[in-house]
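Minutes, project check-in

Agenda point 3 was the complex the collaborators sent over. CS summarized: four entities, 708 residues total, and the question is how they sit relative to each other. Sequences were read into the notes so everyone works from the same version.
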Amino acid sequence: MTLEGRKKNILQAIIDDYIETAEPVASKSLLSRHQFNLSSATLRNEMSDLEQMGYLEQPHTSAGRVPSDKGYREYVDSLMRIDHLSDVQEEEIRQRINSSFSELAQLLKNASSTLSEQTGYISVALTPRLRSSYLKQLKMMMIEPGKVLVVVVLSAGVVKDKLVRIPDFLTAEQLFEVSNAIELGLCGLSLEDITLVTITSAVKDTPIPDAILNQVLFEAYTAIKQADHLELYMDGSHRLLSLPEFRDVDRAKNVFDTLSRDGIVAGYLDNLSGRKAPDGTYMIRIGQEIALQGMSDCSFVTTTYNVDDKIVGNIGVIGPKRMDYSKVVSQMNFVRVLIDKHLKNDNNRTEDIG
Amino acid sequence: MTLEGRKKNILQAIIDDYIETAEPVASKSLLSRHQFNLSSATLRNEMSDLEQMGYLEQPHTSAGRVPSDKGYREYVDSLMRIDHLSDVQEEEIRQRINSSFSELAQLLKNASSTLSEQTGYISVALTPRLRSSYLKQLKMMMIEPGKVLVVVVLSAGVVKDKLVRIPDFLTAEQLFEVSNAIELGLCGLSLEDITLVTITSAVKDTPIPDAILNQVLFEAYTAIKQADHLELYMDGSHRLLSLPEFRDVDRAKNVFDTLSRDGIVAGYLDNLSGRKAPDGTYMIRIGQEIALQGMSDCSFVTTTYNVDDKIVGNIGVIGPKRMDYSKVVSQMNFVRVLIDKHLKNDNNRTEDIG
DNA sequence: ATTTAGCACTCGAAGACCTTGAGTGCTAAG
DNA sequence: CTTAGCACTCAAGGTCTTCGAGTGCTAAAT
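CS then shared the predicted structure for the full assembly.
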């Protein structure tokens, strides 16, 4: 069931206005801001219909109308047109993102802060899910006796490392041998397939004494497992307090409390599935649809960036339900495209991105 | 000029009460909460004196008294007694901090979140100032053609690395040679002494073609410089909204805006100098004394942890001026001690911290 | 010379009450 | 089906009042 012509236009106009003003939209003010060939009375009738259909809500009898979650849903699904960014905006974003260093973490931090700055809302970026990427190299570099840097190179071109301790009687030569054995045994295995069991069996018939091997194995294992760890970068939480809907401290607190709970948002993004845009690029959750405690006053817009065909991560924007969806979607998509390009070029070693 | 006996006790009682209740302290309620052998009238006279002396303020005529910045200053300087943590608390903190991985960043993140959780305020941790540490090792490890991991090992036992690109016609052997030359030329130099000039001259009479050398030099340089970069970890900003003094959105916003401005707090900590506690361990800035925009409703308690004799970093707690200073100081100091031990043991490779 | 009881005074907080006007829904005519 | 007109509703904001917590001062008591 979709909306008929005039009602559709009216609903769109109402939501557009509300997004801009944050004030309940009245029949008259709607008239003055748009060119309907209608009287306010007719408009009122239509608005009353739209309310009955569940697209609008009325804070109280003598107030204008406010979009309901269902109203916003209709809006993002079939009413709004995604505007495209001005050249100036594109250039600005490009500048910021392209100034990233080559590290993935830096790229994502940068993308997140750019996105938050551009939209004025909260932005998040989640590191890619590397479970299904496979191990390409594993090097162990002795920093000093007992202290080793484990460098993990994954198929997607991602490099992670971790400083670990090993027994300090191990010589650099022994370490080199063990490290090679482990690399040889594990190379080509995907992260999700590497467990303490597989890793132990993979190296078990190497000519290295078990005593030494076992001590190093475990550290190598934790280093590899850590590469799989999802990290979330969040930016711009402070901007929430500038929005009229969050002048109420308790509402803001609800959101902050959830966002600051370790792992909640990361876990959420990791499990995302649901309504995508028709073109499959972005995804919008409105109010209750975000099934997270205390987030029902917000909307959450997300998209997926690609490291390679299989390996993906997410970026997203969290703002009030009354967010400027069309701007957010276009900006987020642009940032996503830049991240994709960056990662692609990164792996191909070409220059001049953008 | 320091405070005489009775006034001193009264001031202390008032501030203790205010810290606990967040309500202006009245003569009667003060009487009921403490055992003074005095009437409320006498108390009122004393309180009036204390106000005239600048230690107290009155929000309005018919309200109780509230400590002024000067009052808090007197309190932290000579009134409060630092309480010591219960065994349970100590154990709790120890558990959390000792679960840190060996990476410095992880240790600081962990310390910061522990500190915020324990105090209920905002906590910060700044990575150590490594300017004066010197280069011990510089290794460049070829990940794949054109992609190199630069590992920088510093005197203080700190290891940093950075992924860089180099021209992809360089072979692993060439890279190895160049890297060794750079290491040889720079080893023992402190970070602040390493500039593009010194680095260039340090390697200029090695038998490697300039064309190759120069391309790698710059990347090595940026990797080294990056090791010097200060990183700030902050935790618990959301807790601010639970405090009665920040129910006012605009106050909270002031603080958030400043804290979220990139580099502001890090720069502030980096430049810290001023009133230390008698024993030189911690430092308290109250209200205006924090010379940062919008922070005049807060106090900032900081201390310094040691990586080695010369290399230090900071941790701190930001809360309302009405913070529980004695608890904060003792908790922060305990965390500092744990960090110190961790870092020391880390460099000595001994186990069982705490 | 302090201390204290007593009392008048102040002033914010909270509630009652009123007014205003933006906005609606309904009705009856176009 | 649309619209003009009107009665109705109700939050926001202003004014007034009350209430009481808390003070400062004065004069007596120690």
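Noted in discussion: The two ends of chain A are 42 Å apart (CA to CA).
Follow-up: revisit at the next meeting once the mutant set is ready.
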